[in-house]
TrEMBL record:
Domain of life: Eukaryota
Localisation: Cell projection, Cilium
WD repeats: 57-88
Residues annotated as domain IFT122 second beta-propeller: 307-563
GO BP terms: intraciliary retrograde transport; non-motile cilium assembly; protein localization to cilium
UniProt keyword terms in alphabetical order: Cell projection, Cilium, Repeat, WD repeat
Name of the protein: Intraflagellar transport protein 122 homolog
Single GO cellular component term: intraciliary transport particle A
Domain spans labelled IFT122 first beta-propeller: 22-196, 201-301
Domain Intraflagellar transport protein 122 homolog TPR: from-to ranges: 572-952
IFT122 zinc ribbon domain ranges (all copies): 1011-1051
Keyword Repeat among record annotations: yes
Pfam families per UniProt: Beta-prop_IFT122_1st, Beta-prop_IFT122_2nd, TPR_IFT122, Zn_ribbon_IFT122, Zn_ribbon_IFT122_C
């Protein structure tokens, strides 16, 4: 810091011009508007700007020892040896005067309440405008100084006996501080640290005549250590910001200290006499000194800038003792407290050198690039160096003193020395390997030298006309920029050793660390110019200060001691390259930082020049995906050479919205269709029509088609359809109308079309069919002559009668109609009808598949009547599949075998239904004999083979066992229980089975069965065992069962002799019976026939049988008719003509009345009741 004289005045005593008026006190107006000086017995008021005397206030009769201004600036006070205190207004008018018992020594206004404290030799008092009288308090010793705390709650008094008394506003002593020297250390000055730095705590600074400087807290504790300054102090004052303080006195000079008491040195030159008082301007930019010899001097304070810059890191001195390292891009700051005056700073890469008065401290950056900065001490060189410039490198410290340059290692040992011919003005580290870095030296003579730390020989680079002010080397070290004291900028190519360009009125220059071809320089008249390559610079950018660095798009500018970041307006520079067609260079400039609008402009300009690489890179920066997709497509097409430059440029214009330009380029390249497609996509049909005024008919037709598509997209389907019809595209028109569901419009279009236009007519018909407008579709199909489709329409409408009526004349279509009818019936759960329809459709396999699925479903659901019925239908179908030519086949034919197998299976399911109902339902209407006969029938039908699916052999045996026990068939009961032991018994009834088994083996009545329960063959009159099948083991006649109670019917089967046709046999059997006189006897009742009835009868025997006893069972073709004689005519028997099953007439009638059909085949023929 330097003190530059602003104005100086010598004040004389008014009575005797030869005598000087000693200046004991000075104070500033709080806003620096006035300077109040106590000189002699007068109070002088000066203009602090120029030192002109404003007024001389007379009111005291003796020497004025102290003056003080209130914080609000409305009044000030003066105290004199005449024991009086005078209060003055800001307008320099006397307001109040009061007195003490002794001379006044010091004054202080409360900064908050503006209460005035006046201190005399033996007492002190408080005065305020609100008080009627002045309150006075005694003091134990002479009061030399006083000061209020920042909050105005306490006042500190400095006494001549070496004591500091801290009192409250009521004058009560709260804290007493005794100085170590006692009366030998009278306190002569004290001040509280201003609130700008002290924060919430008040720190009291004290000076005494023991020549020490001390600091205390409000509680009286000493802070830090006492510091000796070697002279008797007379005044103490803080700077307004609290960072520095000034002590002056018998040393005749101003001594500058930090707020922590660190001595920084003298401020200004030494005076001729003691300095009684010094005051710092409220702005902190100047200081006024009052001396014993009447000298009043005002000095402007100038703080020297101590700083260094390396790329983005800027190191500078703050508060004279601290070093701040600031990252100019991220804004991060690191403070290093040196606790001593910082003379020089140097920074390079990860090194930082700080020169202090007695040593040099070297720091190292220990953090990574992307981490917070952290510097730690690496080395300390405990030597005092006198140098004008300081440079640090990776392993060396470089000192410059006028013409001499020295290189030292970090231990302070001299490594190399260079002596130049002229004063060294500027040093620039250009980088290089550690220990071999290169330096550029700018001399006062204008020479620029290059040296290397490992080489003693300097190299002359260039010479400018006057002293070098600053210089810089670009990143590739191929270009040098030098600015001299005349303001000339010279840029040279070091490789070719030629001057590239020069400029004038320049005070500083810097190359860009990110772009080696860019430099910026500041002008002496203000402003910043940017120059890239060989292009001339644009008009300077507004900037105050000098440029010291350039990183990317940010220039680092120093103004005074403040470093600021100045963003460069690189858009204009970028556009220079764009205008010159240098898009790659423009892109490099843009990468440093330009607005998004400039990026888009660069991308568009590159596209217009068909420079797709730069355009793509620019659009990547702005993240414009649509343009990137277009560029990728255009680049690929350009690479393949498929399209001309005009087409590529037209694509770009169209994408950018320059449609007319694009259309002209398309037309120029002979691609009218692309222009038409563009206008159509944009719905600019009027422009397209104007464009196609001279176009071909095909293009105009294409335009109409596209316009129709647009009309469709904007929900104008009727207009779109009309346009398409006029364009000759009826199919597309039909599709549009069909999407709207307009059946009447479709019919109208169909009527307008000729019958030869089959494709559109078929399309109309298909859409009408989809829209369920079947009559309209039928009209179109008739127009096409497709009667089959008309029939199909009735099928889709499920109008089956009409469909069959129309299909009668179309034999090829009829099976298909039957098949669709069958599918519909199956979906409608009309399975029997569906089965018949499948047969009519010639799809027997489908019919069989349907019945098989029905049987499986019925069995899984335990609907055994349905299962038997569906199985019987399968058996019936198996015979129907045989043609007339197969009627003569014998019974062993495979179809007949299938029939009989299925018929047997159907009878098992039919009979098992009664057993299942008996076991599953809580009550049953079937008597025990019926259950006995039924279960025995099922057992004999299965007859040792595997039971059919869904049939439980255990259930059959279990039912038969229980009924045998009830009916007294003990032998059968035992047989069945023995069989049950070999079967898997369901859970829950094991105990019942075991009990039944035990009881069957312990039958008291003997093991025999009643004869009436045994199966009897009515043909041979023999009884057979229960479980020997459903055929007589003697005569092999099958038992004929009643299909309700499953009793064996009294029927004996016979057959006509060979040669008697079925028709003749039926005629003979149904003829009225002959009279008794007829000599032919009935062979069934001849006495000589005992064991068996005859199986074959001749004509006479047939004629002799009473027709009322004959039962004829006409088997379905190709099975032959079977004949039976009822041996018990009084027992009425009924035969179902549909299924040929035989019933007791009473049982059949009851079942028919209950169910309305035959219990087995479900035939509803009323003739069955007759």
């Amino acid at each position: 810091m330097r003190a530059i004289p602003k104005w100086v005045e010598k004040i004389h005593d008014s009575s005797e011009k030869s005598d000087v008026a000693s200046i004991h006190s000075i104070c500033y107006h709080p806003e620096g508007l006035q300077l109040v000086v106590g000189a002699g017995d007068k109070v002088l008021v000066y203009d602090p700007l120029d030192g002109n005397l404003i007024n001389s206030l007379k009111g005291h009769k003796d020497t004025v020892y102290c003056v003080a201004y209130a914080k609000d600036g409305k009044k000030f006070a003066s105290g004199s040896a005449d024991k009086t205190v005078i209060i003055w207004t800001q307008k320099l008018e006397g307001l109040l005067k009061y007195s003490h018992n002794d001379s006044i020594q010091c004054l202080a206004f409360n900064p908050i309440s503006h209460q005035l404290a006046s201190c005399a030799v033996s007492d002190f008092s408080f005065w305020s405008s609100e008080q009627k009288a002045v309150q006075k308090y005694k003091s134990a010793a002479r009061i030399n100084a006083c000061a209020w705390t920042n909050d105005g709650q306490y006042i500190a008094l400095g006494l001549a006996n070496g004591t500091i008394s801290i009192r409250n506003k009521a004058g009560e002593e709260k804290i007493k501080i005794d100085r170590p020297g006692g009366t030998n250390s009278p306190v002569f000055g004290l001040a509280w640290n201003p609130p700008a730095t002290s924060g919430s705590s008040d720190i009291l600074c004290v000076i005494d005549w023991a020549q020490t400087l001390s600091f205390y807290s409000l509680g009286g504790q000493m802070i830090g250590k006492e510091r000796n300054f070697g002279f008797d102090p007379l005044c103490l004052t803080f700077f307004p910001n609290g960072e520095f303080l000034i002590v002056a006195g018998c040393n005749k000079a101003l001594q500058l200290f930090t707020r922590d008491g660190i001595r920084l040195g003298l401020l200004g030159e030494q005076h001729d006499s003691w300095i009684w008082n010094a005051a710092v301007h409220p702005a902190g930019n100047c200081v006024v000194v009052g001396c014993q010899d009447g000298t009043l001097g005002c000095y402007t304070l100038a703080f020297n800038t101590v700083h260094a810059l390396y790329r983005e890191r800027y190191a500078f001195r703050e508060n004279m003792c601290d070093v701040i390292i600031q990252h100019l891009v991220s804004g991060q700051k690191v403070r290093i407290k040196c606790r001593d005056l910082v003379h020089k700073i140097a920074i390079y890469r990860n090194r930082l050198a700080v020169q202090l008065p007695e040593r040099v401290v070297l720091y190292e950056l220990s953090s990574a690039e992307n981490q917070p900065m952290h510097y730690k001490v690496k080395e300390k060189i405990a030597k005092k160096f006198d140098c004008s410039l300081l440079v640090v490198c990776a392993q060396h410290l470089v000192l410059c003193q006028e013409k001499k340059l020295q290189s030292l290692d970090f231990n302070g040992v001299l490594q190399r020395e260079w002596m130049m011919d002229s004063f060294i003005r500027y040093i620039k580290v250009t980088g290089g390997p550690a220990g071999r870095e290169g330096l550029l030296l700018g001399l006062k003579s204008g020479q620029v030298w290059r040296i290397f730390l490992d080489n003693s020989l300097p190299i002359l680079v260039t010479t400018v006309l006057s002293s070098v002010r600053c210089l810089d080397l670009n990143a590739s070290r191929t270009k040098l920029a030098v600015v001299d004291d005349a303001g000339r900028l010279v840029v040279r190519d070091l490789i070719a050793d030629t001057m590239l360009y020069q400029d004038s009125s320049v005070n500083s220059v810097a190359w860009n660390t990110h772009l080696e071809s860019m430099l910026c320089y500041s002008h002496t008249t203000g402003g910043l110019s940017v120059r890239v390559g060989s292009l001339p610079p644009r008009s300077p950018q507004t900037m105050l200060g000098v440029v010291v660095g350039l990183c990317g798009a940010t220039a680092f500018c120093l103004r005074g001691n403040v470093m600021s970041n100045v963003p460069l307006a690189l858009g204009a520079t970028m556009w220079q390259f764009v205008e010159a067609g240098l898009f790659e260079d423009a892109y490099q400039v843009a990468c440093l930082g330009v607005p998004m609008s400039d990026w888009e402009g660069l991308a568009q300009a590159a596209l217009d020049a068909l420079n797709y690489q730069v355009a793509r890179d620019a659009y990547v920066k702005v993240r414009n995906l649509p343009w990137l997709e277009l560029i990728g497509d255009l680049k690929e097409r350009q690479k393949r050479g498929e399209t001309s430059k005009e087409v590529l440029l037209a694509e770009t214009y169209a994408f950018a919205g320059k449609y007319k330009d694009a259309a002209r380029l398309y037309q120029k390249s002979g691609n009218n269709s692309k222009a038409l497609a563009m206008y159509s996509d944009l719905r600019m049909f009027d422009l397209a029509q104007e464009f196609l005024k001279e176009g071909s008919a095909a293009d105009r037709k294409e335009l109409i088609r596209r316009r129709a598509e647009w009309a469709c997209s904007v929900h104008e389907p009727r207009a779109a359809a009309e346009l398409l019809l006029s364009a000759g595209e009826p199919e597309r028109a039909i599709e549009i109308v069909a999407e709207q569901g307009w059946a009447d419009v479709l019919l109208d279009i169909g009527r307008r079309l000729a019958a030869s236009e089959k494709a559109p007519l078929e399309l109309i018909a298909s859409h009408l069919r989809r829209l369920k407008a079947l009559p309209l579709a039928a009209e179109i199909y008739r127009k096409l002559g497709e009667e089959e489709q008309v029939v199909q329409l009735h099928v889709e409408a499920r109008d089956w009668p009409e469909a069959f009526r129309l299909a009668e004349h179309l034999p090829k279509v009829l099976p298909s109609i039957h098949f669709q009818h069958a599918q519909w019936l199956a979906e409608s759960d009309q399975f029997i009808s569906a089965h018949e329809a499948y047969i009519l459709a010639g799809k027997p396999h489908e019919a069989t598949k349907l019945l098989r699925n029905l049987v499986e479903c019925a069995v899984s659901e335990e609907r055994y009547l349905d299962a038997g019925y569906y199985t019987w239908l399968r058996a019936k179908q198996a015979l129907k599949l045989l043609g007339d030519a197969q009627k003569t086949l014998d019974a062993n034919n495979s179809a007949v075998a299938d029939y009989r197998s299925l018929l047997k299976l159907s009878s098992i399911y039919y009979a098992y239904n009664t057993i299942n109902a008996y076991l599953k339902e809580p009550f049953t209407s079937s008597p025990p004999l019926t259950l006995f006969n039924t279960s025995r029938f099922v057992v004999n039908q299965i007859n040792g083979t595997l039971p059919p699916k869904g049939i439980s052999l255990f259930a059959v045996y279990y039912t038969l066992s229980k009924q045998a026990k009830v009916l007294g068939a003990n032998k059968l009961h035992l047989q069945i229980n023995n069989k049950l032991q070999s079967l898997k018994i369901p859970a829950g009834i094991q105990e019942q089975v075991d009990i039944s088994y035990i009881s069957s083996r312990a039958c008291p009545g003997g093991f025999n069965d009643p004869e009436e329960l045994l199966p009897m063959c009515y043909k041979c009159s023999n009884y057979s065992p229960h479980l020997h099948g459903n055929r007589c083991p003697n005569c092999q006649q099958e038992y004929v069962f009643s299909y309700v109670s499953f009793e064996i019917l009294p029927l004996a089967e016979f057959a006509p002799e060979a040669g008697i046709s079925e028709l003749d046999a039926e005629r003979l059997l149904l003829a009225p019976p002959k009279s008794a006189a007829y000599d032919q006897q009935d062979q069934f009742i001849q006495e000589d026939i005992i064991d068996t009835y005859p199986s074959t009868l001749d004509r006479d025997a047939l004629r002799a049988i009473d027709p009322r006893e004959v039962i004829i069972v006409r088997g379905p073709a190709p099975l032959a008719t079977r004949y039976y004689r009822n041996l018990l005519p009084e027992l009425q028997i009924t035969v179902c003509s549909e299924c040929n099953q035989v019933f007791h007439s009473e049982d059949f009638e009851l079942q028919f009345l209950q169910k309305g059909h035959c219990p087995f085949c479900r035939s509803t023929d009323e003739s069955l009741m007759n």
